[in-house]
């Protein structure tokens, strides 16, 4: 085998350790990207809660805040902001540590354009050198993490008393809208980089998520704009119809309103939500009238206003906003146009995904159909080349048709022909095919010539299909020869060379090719009959020239064949291993017969099957006990079972003193040839040998005793098997 070469790198760093470190870093980065993508989804889903914070008090015609909802919205927003901030810092750190190379592009032929372009490129390179972390994505990420909703709500609503909020409500709207789009864009970047959308079911859920999210966001905007439209109406009424516009505007904030009684009748007259007589309203609320009339903007349960707004958004996205009846207010019409465009884009996105999916499915089916067609042609050609019998050909074609009906053929269609056939054929057809392909080759082996067909057939059944890629080493000189190789397709080279010559590709001996029908590893047949020896070693290098399909007969399987058919093994084979095998077979059979006759005299063992009895025989050992020696003394644990095959032993009970004097307390009972002692061990076996039984008698030899012994641990092993 090749020598191990130690490679030293500068700085003492191990390349393998650096590679493992990079892989660990990439894995951690992938996990973090997943966490960040999920946080982006939660962020864009929770941000619209800020639009539900404001509430209209229709009784006092003032604006107040849902403090509980504002706290929940701020906390959830702050949590996602922390994750955004960590990701933002990691991005900057990565850009600083691994700056991307900047290249100046050639400007073209125009002198004026060339100068301007060179100036822009020069400035961009200088900026990249000074601030490698700066990019468009960095600016977007920075703007996305700013805590604008928390600050704006606190500043505009709490600190600006009176008319301050009414005057600055458009500022709040602008910043909430402007910051929401970068956060949505972060989802797109995360999904694009992480490739989190895979599989038709996940894509379908993703499309559904976009619909629900868009409906949720538009419903929240609709709620927020409804409040703004009513505030606008109040503002116009105060300016145009109030005697003291400033005092009227200052009373719009419920928390800052003075305790002096306030006349709100003129607000009901100029901003009516209901017109019972069908008269035209002084103020046209347009698409927001439903939210105001249904008291959606008032102090009601949050789940009611949330689902009402969500349903409004989903309904109008689905019909592209065609049912919306707007006023002449410009921003209201722009909002309606935006709803129509969003609905149309989502519909086109869905149709595009469906069309792409259908095209991919059609293309995939056509590719599979063509592959199946080509595979069938290859199978027909392969069967003709190997001259397979008609019945086996029919079985193979029938198996392919059956696999097509079960729609499982495409799972194996990309495999090479050899593996393809043995992956779809039933066991019976595989067995017949291996016998047909390999029987002739096995009969070429010198030691197997004239071997009984029953043995060769069993060898074929044990063969395993295998494929080797081009230029792969099957055996190296000196490797244990643990299998025999039968070539079916391709070419294998066998040669002998030294390690240095092998590395330069110069062989010290002639190269011998092995092609279809050839084999390697004949030495295993000398080893198999007596597996007491170590495996033979390969005397040559065995290397594939091209891709090779072959069958393997492992040493273990070959030994199993020989063990099952020892008597059918070729009688003319006179190798030392075969002679030893024949002698050992006769001796083993004789010994097993003697032990079987001894143990079957035990009544509890007579009902056991032959396999169990044979296993017990194999575990029994023959022992000898000297004259007057104790085999067991009363009170000893019975750790073995005794089968007498010669001599006499006595069993009796007595005290320790009487036993030493040899005076029995009662008439002893003899154990002669064919008798046994320790039957209690069989009862203990059923209890998993939690505790060994105790001998109730002395067992002492009168003469020299020969016996078979079955130890408790061996009995436990037999029963466990």
TrEMBL record:
One Gene Ontology CC term in the entry: membrane
Swiss-Prot/TrEMBL keywords: Ion channel, Ion transport, Ligand-gated ion channel, Membrane, Transmembrane, Transmembrane helix, Transport
Residue ranges of coiled coil: none
Entry's localization field: Membrane
UniProt-annotated stretches for the region Disordered: 1-20
Membrane protein topology class: Multi-pass membrane protein
InterPro entries assigned: cNMP-bd_dom (IPR000595), cNMP-bd_dom_sf (IPR018490), Ion_trans_dom (IPR005821), RmlC-like_jellyroll (IPR014710)
Primary subcellular site in the record, as a coarse category: membrane
Top-level taxon: Eukaryota
Domain Cyclic nucleotide-binding, residue spans: 447-522, 604-682
GO molecular function, one term: monoatomic ion channel activity
A Pfam family annotated for this UniProt entry: Ion_trans
Transmembrane segments: 30-56, 68-90, 133-159, 171-188, 208-225, 334-351
Family: Belongs to the cyclic nucleotide-gated cation channel (TC 1.A.1.5) family.
Protein name: Cyclic nucleotide-gated ion channel 1-like
